Amino acid sequence: MSDAPAVSPLFALAAMDLDRDRIEIAMRESVVTTDPHLTELASHLIVAGGKRLRPVVAVAAAQVTGQPASDDAVRGGVACELVHLGSLYHDDVMDEAQTRRGVETVNAKWGNLQAIVAGDFLLARASEIAASLGTEVAGLLARTIGWLCEGQIAELRHTYDPGRTEESYLHSIHGKTASLYGTAGRIGGIVAGADRSLIDALTAYGNAYGMVFQIVDDILDITATEEQLGKPAGHDLVEGVYTLPVLRTLASGSPSADELRDLLGRPLAPEERDKAIAIVRSSEGVESAMVTAERYVDEAERWCDRFPVSEATDVLRAAPTALLDVAVGAAAS
User: Fold this and answer.
1) Has this prediction a pTM greater than 0.90?
2) Is residue 329 part of a domain?
């Protein structure tokens, strides 16, 4: 499951400063335990930073109804973010990653066993928070964790597979990334007491935004620098995860596609990774992936047409385009 791109357009809303403070406090308080070491493990990536996008989506979804976000909306968003963090802990173990958000990963600092247990703890805390918000939210979060697992397995089944289909890719990113944004939006609507049609629209918006988010993240893995990403560029290529820019390059039928295909299908040495990145950057794969991301931007904006007029609606409408602009800027630099 991917971490946040370097720029977070949802955080452009000055009026949500107070809610961001509430989110940050709730995030840190949610992982305090009677064991100081476990607290340190669980807090590691929280302290390292992050844009808290899923809680912001939940809070904004609640505010779409025209009322201030309740503590339940904040807590529901925090539950989603803890699921995301737990998945990152597990991902870093699987990938043997050394850095995340510019700091050592939990597995690099304390070992795989402690990282796995800490990731499990984050998922448990998320489930506990969701249960406190009612059976509907608890069931929804449990289903979402299942969707994350399905998306991750779909990705793992095609590791080092240059023949991976776009259908497989889109199914995977919906499960492992977009579904959690959809759930954040849905929880915000549920705890705010929105009617069912609005709750469904908020869910669909979150899913579409999440698709933009992941495609942009995959583009940045090719076009951005390690400093911008907080992790090594080309990480997906090295791990054998062939994302949309790569799949579009392979499908182009050009000589560069054949050259790229010859490199893939196995782990890459650093110089091979750099060559593969250069091929994808110079092809039409990145631009083509942006066109697909733009399609999901349009879908998210159409769902916003069903929201009541509000400042939060304006922010949610602008957020997908602003996110895509991050990828455009990185590709142009």
Assistant:
1) yes
2) no
